[in-house]
Design goal:
This protein is an alpha/beta fold. 43% of the residues lie in helices and 21% in strands.
Amino acid sequence: MNDEFYMQHALREAEKAYANGEVPVGAIVVIRDRIIARGHNQVEKLNDPTAHAEIIALTSAFNYLGAKYLPDATLYVTVEPCLMCTGAMYWSKLGRIVWGTDDEKNGHARITGANWPFHPKTIVEKGILADDCAALMKAFFRERR
C-alpha cells in the first residue's frame, strides 16, 4: 500500500461529498497501514462552516483512539487544507500530512506563505493524484456556474 492507494480512498470520500452537493473534499486517517477514520465535507448538511473533511476525519480518529494527538498517523486529504484545518492538524501533532491538489484560493499557503503552519515534526507530501483531485473540484464548480 502506498500514498496513491490511500489517496484513492480519500477521493471516494470526496465523491460522497460531491454526490451530496458539498464541495468535494475527502480525508482519511491511517495508522500502521490501517484506515482508522474517514471524513468528507458536510458544511451544507450540518449548516456548519467547520464541518470540513479534515476536521471530521480528525475527530473520528481522536474518538477511535481515545487520544488527542496523532503522532503515528498520516492524514490524506484531496485538497490542500485551509487555514482552519491546518490549525487543527497542527494541534493534532500528526506525523504526516498528504494532500492531492493545491488550492490557490482557499488553501493555507495563501495566508501562511512560506511560513511552516504545521507541527515541527510533521512531514508533508503533496501532489498525490493531483490531477484526479483537481478534476473532481473543477467538475463540481463547473456544474454550479
